Amino acid sequence: MTPQAIIKANGLSKSFFGNPVLQNVSIALEPGRIHALLGENGAGKSTLINLLSGALAPDGGEIEIDGRSHRRLTPSEARRAGIAVVQQELSLTSDLSIAENIGLGAYPRRFGLIDYKALARKAREVCDLVGLEENLSTPVGDLPLGRRQMVEIAKALFRKPRILVLDEPTSSLSAHEAQTLTRLLQRLRQEGTAILYISHRLNEVMRLCEHVTVLKDGKVTADRSLQGVDAAGLVRLMVGRDPGDLFPHWTPSPERQTIVEVAGFSSGLLRDIDLDIKRGEILGLGGLVGQGQEDLLLGLYGALPASARRAVFNNVAGLPSSVSRANALGLAYVPADRKREGLHLIHSIAWNMMLPDFGKARGLSRRDPAAERKLATELADRLSIKGDLTRQVQALSGGNQQKVALAKWMPADPPILLLNDPTRGVDVETKREIYVLLRRFAAQGKAIVLSSSDTPELVHLCDRVAVMREGGIAALLEREQISEEAIVAAAMGAEAAKVAA
Amino acid sequence: MSQANNSRFPAWSPKALLRNRAFLTVAIVILVWIVAGFAKPGFGSYGHLRYLLELAAVIGLVAIGQTYVVIAGGIDLSVGAIVTVSAVGVPLVALSGDGGGAFAVLIILAAATSIGFLNGLGVAYLRIHPMIMTLAMATFLQGVLILIAGGTAISAQNPLLAWLGNARIIGIPAGVLLWAVVSGAALAVLHATPFGARLYALGANPLASALSGINVQATTMAVYAVSGLTAGLAGVLILGMNGQGYVGIGDPYLLASIAAVVLGGTSILGGSGSYAGTIPGAILLVTITALITVVNASAGWRSILFGSLILLLLLLSGRESQRR
Q1: Which one of A25, A389, A434, B46 has the fewest CB atoms closer than 10 angstroms to its CB?
Q2: Domain enclosing residue A490, as ranges
Q3: Chains A, B: CB contacts under 8 A, how many?
Q4: What is the dihedral of CA A299, A301, A302, A303, to 10 degrees?
């Protein structure tokens, strides 16, 4: 391809346990260009990054850096060549400070000891680049998810990379942080850094990137300039067919009975909020990251200590005191961090699907393996989870893992679903499937609370949207009032007020 | 439907057997027995193997609870002390009206279960790390035992225990039979009940388990109570075989139980494994001990040899597989 590419992969292939994940994939990253890598979950994007960063060795093909070809790139060779990767799964150590995390593995030394002064100075520089104003000695564990992501990016910049790979950097960022990142990437592009950008948010890709490589089932289906391609065209390239509408058509459900009612509800960040949740509706929770959305869901679910002046759940007065009690009242919760909170990665798909029942059933009753297999097969068919259900969940792609996290609640048929960012890091096709599923649940008369960091999702899917700000509900928008502008305005209101104060 | 089921749940294959740690441990035991049987006259005799199984029964019983606890993501360092409590306690609670001796045994088993329950209480509600909680419990019990029993051995006059320690039913020692029956129950609970599944859930991801509606505290308390019960049972069996109990009689069983669990392929990190591996693990352990006593060396060297062999076996039978 182009002669000036810094890094070039030629005909890479990689298989895991005999399953080809990448087949004959070539990609070339040029300085001063933001290159988008698109594909559904499981298309092989993460594997490709791991090959480029030396974390994995390819089965076939070669990687060329500055014209020198490598059959197998070691992580240290990749680092020396100036490749830095911002992983989707954060790789920070929560007990270390921001500065220590940023410098980890590349600490400036003085007389064989860490030169903390130089570290602080250099860390400050990169933090300024990404707009991190926190005290650099703050432990990373004390930061909200979005800020941690910025630390991760600062950590990559600390190494002064020539090639920067970002794997879904914006999935946990607020609108404001995402803007900072956009400006930063544009600056790096001018300085001649080669950037590989992975995102499921097509608007971002359209706005930022010049060139795109599309992976589908481990093969390159497109490698072209983004000039003259629209979002629909991109989706077509990814799924290999017309996208249709990402969101299903919104129709109001006939049933609108109130099923959950809380007044004076406090939990975690939340202070004294009133909320009612109705059957047949999807109630969206919007706002900046970490304004109490998760505390609301966990408080309702009995997983976080909560109090309320008045609470009625499914005709029963009082807040659920425990998760089992919440389950019994008909609540189910799908967490945002599916690997840590939602799934048992080392256990099989089928086993994960049975888990809520294991919690509910009499401890010493007999399990029925035949019935379990039958139920797991039905659930897998319903959610189109393909293949062997005895595989460990960690072998699945993000989208399929999310489907398992949803599937496990379906046998209980809970009337109230609490969903915490269910489409984070999920590919377009699976997103669509989840959207259709949620609208179908609403039509069946279930009540759904959907916390989401993806504003279009709130606009197109929800009947009402509660915009959260600093532990309160800043605005409760009815269907006809919901728009991206209205949500963002309500979410940002606090920032304007803070400036004024 | 069955067609779909087959593709979703692949049929059992001989290959899977080779990756099964329980099976591999059984294979190692058989191999060692065959080799030792040829190398050393008398090793392979029925009487000697029966003797090994009797020794393994005690370790095996202690290791039931240990396996449960380790699968559930914890560890129980108080099992040795509970074995001693039980072996010293039965003679102490002997009552005049208790002719068969069953009553004393029941009281002691209840006490052992309660001790385990207290461990669970500390781990589940006070959030004390299992290692600290159970170690503190062991130290506490040791103190109580010294106060009560002092340095003397206490003989048991208990007909039930005498029978348990010495009787043979169609040539099989009663203790081994007891182990077999309890093992069957332990395996059934682990693999065929929701309670068993909860242990695997807890060990693999306690947070996700809690959010899935599993009562983590109750399960934790139950699993340590089971560990107390099986350690108590082992103490009763030792007392029956030995005729008398003394402070320190249970000490060797702490490390032995953990070694049997790990030799049997249960991950010390929790979440995976089975008691099916611990059974041959316990037998392997006593076999190695028996072989080492043959070597003409001082006790110190025998101990060194024993430790090295355990490490070697662990390396041979596969290291901790990669975990996230």
Answers
A1: B46
A2: 258-500
A3: 119
A4: -80
